[in-house]
Each structure stands twice: as C-alpha cells, then as structure tokens.
Amino acid sequence: MSTFHRNSRKAALLAAVTPFAMLYAGTVSAQTSTAPTQPATTQDNLPAAEQDAAAQADAGRQLQSASGDSSTGGADIVVTGSLFRQAITPSPVTTLSAESLDQRGIATVQDAVQRLSSNNGAALTNSFTANGAFAGGASAVSLRGLSSSSTLVLFDGLRAAYYPLADDATRNFVDLNTIPDDIVERIEVLRDGASSSYGADAIAGVVNIITKRSFNGVSGRAEAGISQSGIAPTQRLTLTAGTGDLDEKGYNAYISGFYYHSGGVRNSDLPYPFNSSNQTGIGGPDNTLNAGTWAAANAGANFYTRPTGGTQFNLLGNQCQTGQPIATGATGATVLPSTICSQDSVYQYGTVAPEIERFGGSAKFTAKIGDTSEAYAEFNFQQSRSSYSGTPTQIYANGPAGIYFQPYSSRSNSASYAPGSQALTLPVFLSNGQLNPNNPYAASGQTAQIVGLLPTSVERNETRSRVYRGALGIHGTVLGDWDYRVDATAMHTDLRRTADGYVYIQHLLDVIADGSYNFLNPSATSQSTLNYLTPTNITDSSSDLYQLQASVSKSLMQLPGGDLQLGFGGSVYYEAVDSPSANSDINGPTQRYFRINAFGTSGHRTVSSAFGELNAPVLDQLTLNASGRYDHYSTGQSNFSPKFGAKFTPFRQLTLRGTYSRGFRIPSFAEANALPTTGYVTNSAGLFNDAYLAQYGCTTANFSTACPTYIRSGSYGATTLATPDLKPEKSRSFTGGVVFEPLRNVTLTVDYFNIKKTGAITSLTSGDALRAYYAGQTIPTGFTITPDAADPAFPNATPRVLYVSSALVNANTLKSEGIDFGANARFNFGDVTWISNLDATLQLELSTTFPDGHKESYVDTLGNYNLTAGSGTFRWHGNWQNTLLVGPYSVTGTVNYTSGYDLSAEDQGGVAGDCSLAPSPAYTGCRVKSYITFDLNTTVKVNDQFSFYVNALNLFNRLPGLDPVTYGAYLYNPVQAGDGIYGRYFRAGVKFSL
User: Fold this and answer.
1) What are φ and ψ of residue 983, in 5° steps?
2) How many C-beta atoms surround the C-beta of residue 220 within 10 A?
3) Which of 66, 892, 919, 972 could cross-link 960 (Cys pair, CB 3.0–4.6 Å)?
4) What is the pTM of this model?
5) In whole angstroms, what is the distance from residue 391 CA to residue 289 CA?
6) What is the distance between the alpha carbons of residues 45 and 274, in angstroms, rounded to a whole number?
7) What are the pLDDT digits (tens) for 823-854?
8) How far apart are CA 535 and CA 523, in angstroms?
9) Cis omega (within 30 of 0) on the bond before 742?
10) Could you give the CA distance from residue 859 to residue 4 in angstroms, rounded to a whole number?
C-alpha cells in the first residue's frame, strides 16, 4: 500500500475538493449558465477563457475557439491519435490553447509543455543547459517519467527532426525551443501510448504542436518582463499579417515573425543560500575556499607550487590574483599552504540559466482546390542561441574519457592514464635554455609541481541552432465519400557549438616548456599566448527529417450508434544525425582539450510504415476502436503495434473509456553508434563505507563535514558504451477512465494509466560497481573501474573512482503507473463569467525491475538519479486555473503545485525514504518540501483592436525548498522550481489586431 506524506495529502485534498466546490457553484448558478452548443459527453481539455467549456467536452477530439478568431478559419479539426475527423476516441487528450496560455502568462511552447502535469522525471529544461547538460541549448519533455526518448513530439501531425545532440548523449528527442511560438494555435497532448498511429517513440504519449490554418489582418504583440529583484529580463515581439478568406476568396496567405530574448542569470543574482558556497547559515558546511576545503584539486583561481618531492604547497609569488589572502597556520608537514586565497566559487562563477535569444519567421499559403479539397504550403525558419560562462579555466585536471587512448592527466602518472601523464611540472630550464622565471625553485635546480586554475580566464559555451522546415499537403474528399490526406515535410537543423576558455593539453605543455605563459603575473601574459593555450573550439552538427505520408478514410455502413469508419494509409520517412565529437583524441591523448566531453554520434535510416484504423459505434452507448501500424527500418528492425479502445456512455452524464496498446522505441543513433560518453555524478555518502573512509579520517555519519574535499566534493564519470546490436524496447500500455458531467458546463475526469516497458535500453547500475570497489570486492562483470589520481594529502589511501564504464544492454523492465485528474467548468453570473480548469497527476509507481528480479522504485525520491540528473520523480504535479471575465476585463489566477520528495534514490544504493543521499549530518532535513506558487494575470481589452495585460508570476514570492543533492542546479531542484527561483516576476505587454 502506498504511503502518502503530508504534502501529498494536501494535493490530493485539493484535487478532490475542487470538483465538488465547482459542482456546488454550478447548482447555485444553473439558471444563468450558458447552454452548450452541442451535447457534452467527456472533457479533459484546458480551454481558453472565451471558449465554451461544454462545447469542448469530448476528450477525444480537438475544438476550435468559440470566439470565432480568424486564426482558426473554421477548419476541420485535426485529431491527434486518430485518422477520423471529429472522431471520439477513448484516449485521454489535453488541449492547451494559445489563449489559455496567454491567460496563465506562459510565453513559450517549451514553458507550456514543461508545466504539463503529466511531465515528470527526466525532463530537460533550459536552465540545465548552464549546468552540464549534454544537449545544451535544448528543452525536452518526459511524459510519465519515461524520459525524453519515449515521448513523441509532432509538428502539425508530422514528425520533426531530432536535436543533433542527444539527451545524456544517448536519447534522441525533438527540441521544444524549435517551435515558432507566434503561430501556434494549440498544443494537443495525447496521454496514452500511440505507436499504433505514429510508430516509434510514442510509448508514453504524443505532444502535437498545431499551427494556425489561416489568418487575415495584422496582429502583433510587444512584451517585456523582469523579476522584482531586477534579474532574468525577457523581451518578446511578434508580428503576423495575412490576407484572403478561404470561404469567400478560396485562399489565405500569411507571414509571421517573432523575437524572444531572456537574460542570463547567475547565482550571485539570487538570495542566500542559493548565491554562496558558505552554507553555515542553513546549518551546513562552509564550502568557500578556506583552510578546511583547500586541496590540490580544489585550489581556486590562483597558483600554488612545491618542489617536486616536497610536501607543502606555497602561494606562487606570495600574492593572490583573485580572492583575499588567509593565513592557515599550516606547517611543512601538510600539503596545505601557509597562505591561501579565499574564494566563493558559487558566488563568483555559478550560473543559474543561460542567456537565450530566439528569432524566426513563418509563411503559409492555403487554397481551396475545387469544391472538396484544400491544399497548403508552409515554410518555417528559426534561430536559437544559448550562451553562458562557467568556472575558471583548468590546467590541473584529468582529460575526458578517451576514445582511442587512455586519458591524459596533469595530476598523476598512474597506469590508469595515458603514457607521459604526470603531475603538472614547471621545468628548471625553458626550451631556449633560460632559467625558468615561473619556477621559484629553479635556482636550486629543482622542478616545481603546480596546481590551481587560470585567474584570468573562464570557460564559455554557446550553442546556436538554425532550423529550416517546409511542409505541403492536400486533403479533401474524392469519389463522393472517400476522405483523403497527403502531407510531406522536410526539416533540417544546423547546430554550432562554440567553446572558449578550455585548455588544449599539448598547448599547455608547450607554454610551460617555452615560458610564454606568465604564471607569476598571469595578467601580463600576451593575448596571443592565451589564444594559443585556449583556442576556440567550434563543432558543427546537423540533423535531417524527410517524410511523406498519405491516408484515406471512408464510412462503410451504418451501425446502431453511427457510421462504421475505416481508414488506412502509409508513410515513409528518412532521419539522420551527424554529430561529430568536439574533442576527439584520434591524434593522440594530448591533442585535445581538458574538460570538453568527447561524445558524438552519427547515423541515418529510412522507415516505411503502413497503418489502419477501424471505428465502430456498435450501439448508441458503445463505441469500439481498433488501430495498428507496421514499421520497417532500413537498419533491419521491424515492429507491429496494435491498439484497442472502447468508450461506453450508459447515460449522457457519464462516460467510461479505456485503451490497450502495444508500442516500441527504436534504439537511438547514440545508443547504437555513439562514441564513449561520460556524465559526471557528485559523490554521496551512500557510495562509501566506514572502513574505506577511515583512510581519510572520516565516516559516513560525518561525510559532509569531516571528509576532505577530495572525497565529499568529488564526482565520478559514468561512461556509457554504445551497443550496435540493441533490440527495440517494447511496451504494453492500458488506460481506464471515467468522465462525469453532473451539470452542463461542469466536467470531471479521472484516468488511470499503466505502462510497462520491457527490454529497456540501459547501462548497468554504476552503484553496484562503486560499492564493490570501495569495499575492496571484485568488480561485477560488465564494468570497468578507472581509479583517480591519489589525493596528495593522503597519498597512501585508496584513491576515489575516476570513471566507471559499462555498455548499453536490453535488460530491464520499466513501469509507470498513475492517475490523471481533471475538472473543467464555466458559469455565468449575470455580467460575470467564471471559468475553472484543474489538471493534476498522481504518480503511483515509476520503477525498474532488473534481470535478477530485484526492483528499484523512484516515486517520491531523487531516483532515477543518474537519468534525471538528481531531479527525481514527483508523486504529485498539477495546476488549477481560474478566470473571471467582467466586460473588457479578464483576471486569471493559477495555482501550480509540485510535491516534495525524500533525499534518497534506490539506484544509488539506498532504499526509498531512507534519507541516504542527504548530507551527513542532514542539515536541510531528509525531505525537500513541496512547492506551491500562484500566478496572476490581468488583461484589459481597450477596444476591438488593442488589449493590455500584466502578469505577476509567483505572486507570493515563494522560493523552492532546499535540495543539497540534485546536481542540475545549486541547492534547489530546477525541475520542481522552474522559474520560481527568480522570486516574484512581472511581465507586461500589449497586443493588437487590425
């Protein structure tokens, strides 16, 4: 039986009480409620304020705005997950209209999708770009917590090109930042397996971005925002112009353009404790650079030297290039210098979010062809740029995991590293024979070991993607009653990654040998030498997608409940990724950079598919649906995916629905073809044991305060090796739901989902190998452990792990289970209209079962730790939106809720709820508290052409709970908090339509 914590009970109570409150209000106002335009049977959409809630009740179809906006054009409705227009499907669907997003103050598609209650677990946010994401500059959704690769993202029902970089360098996904926000009409989210309609990747569901069919006139907006504290500024401009009327003139054409910018945010911009390495104010350790934290691998942006063979380091030149001098009182018996330079690395160098700039343009032409057909052609272009600066440039480092050679190390000559590796050393004489002025011991004929970071250089990263997309198609009716549709699309992404401030290893050895870098006075080093030492790294990648698909449908006969409909079609698409390594060692272990990951992949394939669907309303109360799809890959795999659904309506107010389906996910290009890929995970006490830690003078109980920086602040590289002969993942999914409409304009929904994925592609659990290593036991089969260089302060102790590597395998079974809740209502009280929408998801289970039978559960913890970057799996996630319309005024309040979680993760060796990942002692407690924010948006319609709006996001200025474990951000969970970390945020804008 599941155990619900206090905050979970609050969220459950909110979800349970709200529908009854609306029901009570509906009873009071029944005499003034607006009658629906058609019978309402089911509803789980999120309508805009001006849409009739009852008219949108059917969860299986998509509805145009009741306001008669010209952008909808009165079009036939495209249904996600079905071949039939106006189809009533058993699958649960959420619709987010552009109007609804405006009311909530949501400015971008990626932000809207990230806020879905069904988005959980391994989502990729923009903020993670600045905190080590492999797929820097991108954003991805993870429905049902099954990762970005199990959610299919479509563009007007067609596939889109993958982002050239893979999430965690293994999972392909579509970047949500590539969607042109200005022409989006609505977002449809099919919360059900959909491989029977779309093929691979749709195991957890489908996000379908639908753009405007037509537009007539001129419209635009200008918007700006900034937090109350003056950080995170944003600006947005859009302009759309169109002409022609499809019904009267037989054509429509429109063009649109947009610009969006969000400023970068640094930790120094945030309030305490999110802006400082010193955690003493919250009961934690002081992690600023001081006598207790200084180490050879944590020396800060200054240089320290010692004679080779010596023990104690000394501040080079006896002066701090950065920071303030501190006398430590250390003697020559320790490695600690007698004087060090204090620094707060979080405050000085920490980055919260990158600077993002996006702009683009779209053009679309649509025309009637005869009386029964319509054709369209469209083109989209978008450029997105994301940039941030990070930590000071490293010279005392280990090279990234090697491809052809062992990595080079400037810390150690251990056999784990490439031949020639050694502690970074200043020679006695330069290459020209001159006595080395950088070596304070040269006069006595001694070489010098040197540690530290470059004081005058920091690492900078930028990604710039350019997306080109074209699509054309025609649809209509032929031969009297055959509906047909033919669509084609082509999409190409160019991605450029630029890295500055990273040391090229051989060039470091060169400038040490010839003395051209001035270690005594780094600011005196010439720019040409700096450029040579840290040459700009530019890597170009690309991806492509070309697709052609066609379908036909027809009503075969009349059944008691309506027309028996049959549809079928075919599709062929080509997809490719070319993402070379930015840091290959093909020319040798020193002919590369420190710190730039070597990951890369390439591949291409053609997929041919055939699909069909049968919709049978066998009775007035019962509709049955069956669909299936066969996919064949040029790489040799094939799969058939069936789906069955039923919808039973015993009386108008109640509908029961359910589906059963099979699905699959093809191995990604990266999983099958990638170069060795390494992600870094921060050490936690749970990996170690007291016998091992005794070598370093500490225990697991005082890990966070007594262990040396080498251990407690260290991290290990989890290296993943691709496997070319992986098999597709298979899935079994079923849903069951109840839709209840007690009154007109009031609809309550509950939908259960259960997804099991077998043959899941995974690397082996690294915690097993790490615990074996630290316990002195035999390393399990399938793993390779690479020890790090020894800590100079404890040279005889067993060193920490540098890399743990394993190959990808089809091994595990993943299960995701939960319940979606929805409540939608609309009431009129004279001149006042109230619209309320609730959307919440309760995650009952997210787990992995291994071949040996043991099981890891992740809900309400930080697991799956490695997959989610320590952001965890939330038990509850939801929002409640309420809008009041009074004449020209519109006021919307939205409550956003994400539950808290325990600082544990079963994939890190603990047991769910045991607090095993918390610091020792657990100075922030064992649980991260739930996070609730309230957004307020007010719009004033000045006239038919102009309206003004003001958003107050996170109105009550709530900051997220402290999380000292997650490594996607500093002291908070970026997936739980989102932009709430900025505090109270204001945004204002003007919209016009001429």
Assistant:
1) 80, -155
2) 18
3) 972
4) 0.88
5) 14
6) 37
7) 999 999 999 999 999 999 999 999 999 888 88
8) 18
9) no
10) 11
